[in-house]
Amino acid sequence: MTVPVQRLPHGTDLALPAYATADAAGLDLLAALDQSMTLKPMGRALVPTGIAIALPQGYEAQVRPRSGLAA
Fold it and tell me: Which residue in 25, 12, 19, 3 sits closest to 51, CA to CA?
């Protein structure tokens, strides 16, 4: 399946989502931020990604913690 990805103006310098290794289960997605962000435990925030995607009906995208940081 091919998913169209549109770069947004605030994400033109970011790499597009990509698999970090051949065995990776998901793509790495970068945040389009000028400075770092810290979340409190169980905290929430809207984080710009610099992209827009169009998923076909019946599919979903998930954002998960970095595997190295996941509990």
Answer: 12
